[in-house]
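Sat 14:20. Reprocessing the chain from the morning session after the first attempt stalled halfway. Input below, unchanged.
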Amino acid sequence: MNLFFGPINARLIAQEGENSVSGSISVDYVSHQFSKTADAVLVDINLNVKAGELVSLIGRSGCGKSTLLHIISGLLMPASGCVRIDGKTVTRPSAKWNMMFQKASLFPWMSVRQNVGLGLKFARVSKKQISERTDELLELVGLTDKAQDNIQSLSGGQQQRVALARSLATSPTVLLLDEPFSALDTFTRSALQQDVAAICKTKGITLVLVTHDIDEAVLMSDRVFVMDQNPGRVIDEIPVDLGWPRKHMDQDFQRIRKKLLLAFKGTEKTEPPRALDGGRHGVESSAA
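Finished this time. C-alpha cells:
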C-alpha cells in the first residue's frame, strides 16, 4: 500500500525497496570559505545521518545550507574537514548520491523518456536495460503517458517528476534536494513533498533536504538541523517524532512546527555557538 497520496505506483516502490541499499552520511568538522581572504561561510559543521534517514537543513538565506549540500555531494570540496558516505570520503560526485535542484535542469530537445534514461546511457547500460528501467521509473512517478512528450510541453511539477525519475535511475543510496519544490504551486508542491518522502522511506534512500519552508521540513523529515549564519553553523537539532502520512492540522504536527519555528526565530540574532556537553554540533540541542 502506498504511504501517501499522489500518482506514485506503490507496487513498484515495494519491489525496488526489497533490493535497495541506503547510505549513511558523516560530516566531520567541515569549514569552508571561498578564498583565503573571504569570510568563513561554514564553521565546524559536525553531523551524522543514518542510512535511510530523512533529514532537513533549514535556515535563513546566506547561512550556507546549499554550500553544505554541495560539499556533501562532492560538487565542492571543503576548506577543511571531510564528508563520508558509507564510510568512504567524498572527493567527487557519484551516481550513488544524486542531487535535485530548484530547476529541473532537463534537456529541452529530448523527450521525457530520453531525459530519464540519460544517466544510464552515460553509464553504458544496455539499450534494453535502459528501456526497462525507464518504463519502471515513468510508471513510478506517474508519467507513463508522457514518455514521448517533449520536456517543454510539461508543467513545472511534471518536469520535477522527470528530474526525480532521472535521479532514481542509477539506484542512488542518497538523494540530496536543494529546494526543488520552491517554485511550484501549493497543490503540486504538497503532492511532491509527500511522494518523494514516500519513495525514500519505502526504498530506504537517505534524504537530505535544504529548505526555507518549516512545514516542508516537518512533512518530509525524521530530523531537522537548524542553521545560523555569519558564519554558517548548526545551532539546533529537532527530531520529528511523527507517523506517516503527516497532516498539517494534526496537533502533533503543530507541536513540532511550533518548536521548529522557535528555533528558526532564534537565528535572527547571530550569537556565538552555544556549547552542548558531549554533542555533535557544538550547540544546545532541543532534541533532549
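Residues 28 and 46 are 5 Å apart (CA to CA).
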